[in-house]
Design goal:
Distance between the termini: 42 Å
Structural class: alpha/beta
Number of helices: 9
Largest sheet: 7 strands, mixed
Strand content: 15-25%
Length: 245
Amino acid sequence: MYKKQDLVNHLSELGIDENGTLLVHSSMKSIGRVEGGAETVLDALSEYMKNGLLVFPTHTWSYINAENPRFYVNESHSCVGLLTELFRKRPGVVRSWHPTHSVAALGKGAHEFIVGNEQFDTPCARESSWGKLLDQKAAILLIGVDLRRCTYIHGVEEWLDIPGRLTHDHEMLYTILPDKTELSIPQRRHIGHTSEKYIRVEDLFLNHQVMYKGQFGDATVRVCDTVKMTDLLNHLLKEKPDLFT
């Protein structure tokens, strides 16, 4: 059974910059038995990143849509895993206001990182938190999941305006703030299942040192460099826009 310090040690062994920005995609089950469960995992990540910025996706795309259009910042549950849902409720954590692709952040510059996402009509706009990951030269930690869960790649496809990635039409969604203010947010959506094809670049990422593997608890993890990832994907997708179709 893993203790918090074991997990902190694993993060150190992975060489993650404790003063930088870290986005985590995760499968709690993959980590194995942890004393204190999921809260201990979050304690370990938060402690390690106490001088940096820790970010989790808190997406709601699976159920916020034209038929169910209201996203409640404080109440709407994350659809991307146990750790994301527990993290967004923690003291000091702030959540962005994007109706389908919100993120939650804790630490250095958290408010500045999440502010304004609701101003954009796409899930991963370059000026949103997804683009700020690149600006801040963030690392992406995939715990027990692979590139098919890496939302950032959706962002790169958006920024390159790859055809067939977004709906042409908008649907009207609404973000409900904690004070009950309602914001109208017309939104285009991702279409297709291109993320299932992201695994195609795994070997290229490894060979070009965009990504490396390690361990966190029992989980195999992938650590990705957003700058190197973006540079390589820009090259690949400009040459072959249908790489993931």
